[in-house]
Amino acid sequence: MQRRYNCLIVDDEQLARTLLSAYIEKIPHLEVVGSCKSPLEAMNYLREGNVDILFLDIQMPELNGVDFLKTIAQQPAVIFTTAYAEYAVTSYELDAVDYLLKPFGFDRFVKAVNKAIEKVEAKNTPSDKKEAEEVLYIKGDQKIYKVEPSSILYIEGLKEYVSYFIENQQRIISLHSLTKLEKELAQYNFMRVHRSYIVNLNHVTAFERHALWIDKEEIPIGKTYRDTVKEKLNW
After folding, report:
1. Each residue of 88-99: pLDDT tens digit?
2. What burial class does residue 49 get, using C-beta atoms within 10 Å of its C-beta: 0-12 exposed, 13-18 middle, 19+ buried?
């Protein structure tokens, strides 16, 4: 049986609340538990702890959505809904799962909801299962290597192959695609910084406009990736 996810809407505009309610009602496993015109109204719902997904506007009287989110100790999966694009970076710093820029359509709404559900389910996964998932199995040299994502320093693309550079000077060459790895490893704080490189941001020791360093190894930063890398590192 499909689990139902409780949704709370917080937006000072009636039309926005009505649209979100209509979108939520189209998805059988979502349910609106509250529709509030201000963050102060929403506090009681959040205290009860039965909110899975919070749709939160930013520009509101009395208390804006960003400041309100900072006051919530046990946060649900948060999707910002706003007409102001300049808050996008701030929203991800606050660990929001998505940022819907008004006006948005139902297809974009569904993508955001799917991300939110993934976060809710991950939060509810038993800790022993989570630990079991924190391992990658890499095929290379006619072997299968069991590797912790945190031990990978960076990955270099070699046409149809990739080369994993791992702590303790280990290197594994495997038949894989950088594009696929970019998506698969994003959850572990990896990022594409060049058409030929993905790096583990946790291992970056120095950064400048055209390159970054992992210990003494210099990794080039491609022109199209520069702004995103700088924003993600937040140095």
Report:
1. 777 777 888 999
2. exposed
